Amino acid sequence: MAKFVxxxxxxSYFESLSDPRHTRNRKHLLVDIAVIAVCAVxxxxxxxxxxxxxxKNRESWLALHLTLxxxxxxxxxxxxxxxxxxxxxxxxxxxxxxxxAIPVDVNNPHRLVAIDGKACRGSHDKAxxxxxxxxxxxxxxxxxxxxxxxxxxxxxxxxxxxxxxLNQIDLAGTLITIDAMGCQKEIVKQIVTGxxxxxxxxxxxxxxxxxxxxxxxxxxxxxxxxxxxxxxxETRDDGHGxxxxxxxxxxxxxxxxxxxxxxxxVKAIGYSVRVTRHADGTESEEMRYYLSTxxxxxxxxxxxxxxxxxxxSMHWVLDVNFREDEHRTRERxxxxxxxxLRRFAVTLLKRHPDKDSLRGKMMSCMINTDYLxxxxxxxxx
Length: 381
Prior knowledge:
Elements: H1 7-10, H2 30-42, H3 48-57, H4 59-62, H5 75-84, H6 87-101, E1 111-120, E2 133-140, E3 145-152, H7 158-167, E4 174-178, H8 185-193, E5 197-202, H9 208-222, E6 230-239, E7 242-252, E8 268-278, E9 283-292, H10 298-307, H11 309-320, H12 332-351, H13 358-367, H14 369-376
Parallel strand pairs: 1-4, 4-5
Antiparallel strand pairs: 1-2, 2-3, 5-9, 6-7, 7-8, 8-9
Helix pairs in contact: 2-3, 2-12, 3-5, 5-12, 6-12, 13-14
């Protein structure tokens, strides 16, 4: 059950945040600027200029909840603050807000958390040798909550960003899902050491591992799995002009599994098969392999594999509704903090009980402060 959060009390979460500005330049309160930024991004604003413009048009409403000692902060004031706030400290404020407002479900023994990276494609600057800003984020798939993120300058650096992100998360009792980029021994060890579990996709970045898993299952399939103890689950989805049939199989790691000594934390290996039948009669099949640090039920294994696409859906929302790929923000800290605000906005908007689309909810927040108040207040679903 979500806790009601009064709009006027939101600023209290930012009071512990250290203000990086010089005291001579503090005409506006950090709390006021932060709350304005949160509200404006929920309404679809994409940067300091749009945030300032929205705030000027909502000054009378903001004055009901904020101090605003010198009126609405300028675009440059908003930009300077978001450029100097340390992203990790900024995120901790929102994490405290969410933890208090939406307590973790104690009846869910393995909270599903997906970790994946996304490129902000408009953030590059070839003239200065600046590549795309990559954001590696954590998403509580079943709850629809952004848990944290780390920014990198290259996709290859996701391998080093994932451990940093894991350090920001309470791993105990969580089930972490990561794509093949995160299939690294030290990452698996870190999750298990933190008393969590993981299901990680396996591809050719670990050549011995996928070959060993594929060989193991191929041998058993030739015998129709007769002498294999395993967990199994099937699903069927019918819609959008196609039928998707999915099968998930998970088996304990055999004692003679070749990579077992190198991956002592792995307790089970599995695969998923997706068969898609289209209305025109064509059919396609996709098979993927996974490692797991726990021997889950087939149903939970399937939920973990399928649930990982929740973060891909969130990335799609960021590009379609917030146009994140089109943003030309090149200053890294500013881009990181704006990216986090967008992810937090998705969290709040998704939890509003209205059946409207996320884009529709954003428009309602823009034109109706009562609706915005409901979104900010984290009304229970």
